[in-house]
Specification:
It comes from Calorimonas adulescens. The chain has one helix and three strands, in the order αβββ. It has a three-stranded antiparallel sheet with strand order 1-2-3, covered by helices on one side.
């Protein structure tokens, strides 16, 4: 996100949605096991995405994040 440049949201942030799932589960706000939800992002910027999240709790937590992606720009960095 870069609000000063007119970018008010990310098209898709799997990392943030995985962390949200962990927060909801660990804080006790949602007590489902497994916790599953879909997150929609990028709609306002014309690049809609759907991210699926699953958080399971057993001896340890497991977090799965998935979805489809479309390459918008590609580049190469030479160092």
């Amino acid at each position: 996100m870069a609000p000063l440049l007119g970018i008010s949201e990310e098209a898709a942030t799997g990392t943030a949605n995985g962390a949200l799932g962990m927060y909801l589960r660990e804080s006790g706000l949602v007590d489902e096991n497994p916790l599953r939800f879909n997150a929609e992002q990028g709609i306002a910027m014309g690049r809609p995405s759907l991210i699926s999240v699953e958080v399971t709790k057993g001896e340890r937590y497991g977090v799965k994040v998935g979805g489809a992606a479309k390459i918008i720009v590609e580049g190469e960095l030479c160092v």
